[in-house]
Description:
- The complex is a heterodimer.
- Chain A is mainly α.
- Among the domains of chain A are: about 20-125, Serine Threonine Protein Phosphatase 5, Tetratricopeptide repeat; about 495-625 and about 675-705, no CATH class; about 730-845, no CATH class.
- Chain B has a single domain (about 5-160), classed as 3-Layer(aba) Sandwich (Aminopeptidase), CATH 3.40.630.30.
- The longest helix of chain B has 15 residues, at about 95-110.
- Chain B: One of its GO terms (molecular function) is acyltransferase activity, transferring groups other than amino-acyl groups.
Amino acid sequence: MSKRRVGGTTKANGLSIGRSKEDTNLLEALKLYESKNYKKSLKLVEASLKKNSQHTDSLALKALNLYCTDQKTEAETYVQRVLAKGSAGGPSPIGLHILGIYMRNEKRYSEAAKFFQTSLDNGSNNKQIYRDLATLYAQEHDYKNLLKARQAYWEDFMGYRANWTSLAIAHDLNGQPQESANVLTKFEELAKGKLGEAELYEHNECLMYKNDLLFRAAGDDHDKLQRVFKHLDEIEQDVFDKYAWLERRAALYMKMNDKQNASKVYRTLIKRNPDNFRYYRLLEIALEVQGDEKRRSILYSNLERFYPRAEPPKFIPLTYLKNEAEYAQKLSAYLLPQIERGVPATFNNVKPLYKKDTDRTSRLAEKIILDFLADLDQTKSPLTYVWANYYLCQHFMFLKDYTKARDYIDAALAHTPTMVELYILKGRVLKHAGLLVDAAETVNEGRELDLQDRFINTKTVKYYLRADMIEKAVEVVSIFTKNDGSVNGVMDLHLMEASWFVGELAESYYRLYLSNKQKLNDLKKTEVLTEEEAQIERSNQIRLLTYETSKFGGLALKRWTAIAKFFKQFKDDQLDFHSYCMRKGVPRAYLEMYQWGKSVFTLPMYVRATKGAAKLYFGLHDAMKLSNEIENEEESSSAAKKGGKKAKKDAAALKKRVDEDKKSSLAYEKDEDILGEKLISTTKPLQDFFDKFYANYAKEATDVTKDYVLEFEYQLRCGKLPLCVGALSKFADIYGEKNSTVGAMVLSVLEKVKYDSEIDEMTKKLALKGLERQFPSLPLDQLNVEAFEWLAYFQETFETPKLDALLLLRHSVSQIVGIDAIKQLILENLGSQEPIVQDSVLKYELN
Amino acid sequence: MSKSPVNLDNIYANNVGTFRKITNTVLPVNYPEKFFNEQFDDKYKGTFFGQLGYFGEVAVGGIRAELLANKNGGVKPAGVYVQVLAVLEAYRGKGIGSKLLKYVEEQCKTHFQHKLFVHVAVDNKEGLEWYKGHGFEVEGDELKDYYKDTTGSPDAYVLVKQT
């Protein structure tokens, strides 16, 4: 984070004229702070405080200096002392500014904004604060105040284009595109004829941005659209982004219902970039041929002649052709040249067609490739033979015929064992067949062909992690990382925010956590033998497994938390761009980033980490609940405590092991909880989950993107049944009321209503009311009838249960429907799942 | 476009795995790990000539030869000895082997050597024909039990080509 100057504060500024000694010293100390002489600055402030320990501004600066010299806890105590003073005798405008900077460094942006604002309100005439204030409001998405701050700053510094652009954007964000455009126009008038070569790019971006604004402001008003058109024509010479210019032109024609001219522009765009699928689709709309197969086909056969090397004209007809013979012919004309050229992505190119019409596409494609392979002269084109086999392997993998997929990839490998793609594909086949270790070894074999290839290196790492061979994975990944200061690349990959690696690592740790926990439970259940030696051995084993379980669980949480930190960092990193993008004059790119920044915590990797962490935290919560009910049977046989020499030796061995584990899992410098022991030993798992993961997600997820199952499971454990019912009805709106997951949710709520004594009656009633409204036919009157078969009801009322629904039942229902009955249903369902799913459910869910 | 798809390139420490793969796939003899790494040892700098042969972008063949300097009247005759020459079966007859051999012959010239040796297993008919077609002649009797760790015949002929 850049430490911006407390610019200009040193000039006369809100301080009384008869300055005290402390105030003079403060200004001196501020100068030192600004030149990053934190230690000297600190000394000076401390000298002041010795004389007058109540000088608040000095206290504030002391805090800031302490913060900058890495004494954050002490800094916070001084800040608290300042804040305790209240308004009387509180900090001067300078002090408030200092506190604002402190808060910004602490990433408490709204508080920072508050201090900056108060500093200005209390008479600071340091106008620079407005700029910092504006960036803070921008970061907090507080548009109203953003506009005010931008305006204030602009009024004082009109000589910079950046300030005009910033003001325009602030207007725009407040839903005032016309005002925004006016600001830009005013600047253009002022700058007319004075722009140098270096400013032309910025100028072009601002012009195009203005056109965006006008276009948005125009709506469907024909006259206004005409004016936008005129503006677009005027700026043509000055705009560098020709694609945007042409796209806007076409959009304008479309809006004014001049489709013929629009189609001409789209043709121009296609000419410029014949590989952009979007332009073809838009051209179809402009030509109004979408529903007309015949005219579409004429269009595309013409386009194909014009652009013989372009992909879309060949592919798009495959998405609508109905006649099978014609389709087969086109498919063949699409596939075979790619196979002959050796395009590795051939299968992926047609995968959408497989998904759309699995039967027709797979049937025809299979015949096309098999016939082609039968006629192929292998000696003449050996590589084509390999690619055809490669394709067929993927084809059968898509159809889940893993035996055949394996035959084809083996044939290709026997033919050309030096192609790395083949190893990756074989690894994938093995993975789907549930052979994770073999898969990893296979990909590693491919990696050994060329150690320089980072792609295969990372693939290998991922496969090793999937097989839970963490040591091997870390060893391989460390080939490419910076390893100074650490025994392996784990720390570097955290620094590089490599969430793919950290996420896979977390999931692997989680699996090891589950299997060790299982082993531990099994061992605890075994009978305690009478011989002393056996007892010692047993308690030793237990101690070791306890350690391993907690270590793996702790590390899983540690890694997932690291991912949450990466995303928090993405969010914070935006702060500098609120002023940087203005200076660079890229309003369009800025706004794009700004919109993206609104939903950072709903990006797939964050969601994946959140869901992973949810599983572990929910598990902890459920176990805690269970152990409250059953008396905690802590067993410690007398022999375990004695044991003498051997026990000492074992303890030493364990300690050595812990040290080694710490060394190899170190992720941050100066970390105090390397193995995540603090994380895993939490007593408030739900709260932790909310604070570290879920709060951010829930804030940013919209009604459409939200994962209602996760929301449901979380609220269920919080005992907030009405919120569960809310999530459940939202889910039902999207997936239908008969969806089996909906059924599982209903049963989960009923179970809580009936058996959870910690939830109060009022909440239960509310939940039942909600359920009644959503499902009028739900036999709630049967809730107190013991003989009622809820499972039968579930099976009759809802669709055939999907695996997800059954697993949800397994996690949240145990009495209203018996555990064994659910288990049985899961086992039946597994028959239709692919091996890898079967394995993981059997191993991690049914124990 | 009319460029030949066959190309040669050096063997590097990073992609020696490719060379190993080709060798172990084509030849019945099992070479130890050490064999493949010694060519990157500075101690032997300049005594090994290795190349990979590519068809298109894919490595499908390889050669490695050793320069035998006859120092102080050693037992081995001076010359260049081809340790490995292998091309994947599906890619034979495309001139890859010839190109690899030509590379080593050029190395002979630059190092002022006139003799190129090779051992060929007696049951490797295809190999024998190929070498004879490329100007090699059998020298002396067959060596009994020359190959130790092999799934093919342990006996070998010595072939020589004067360059």
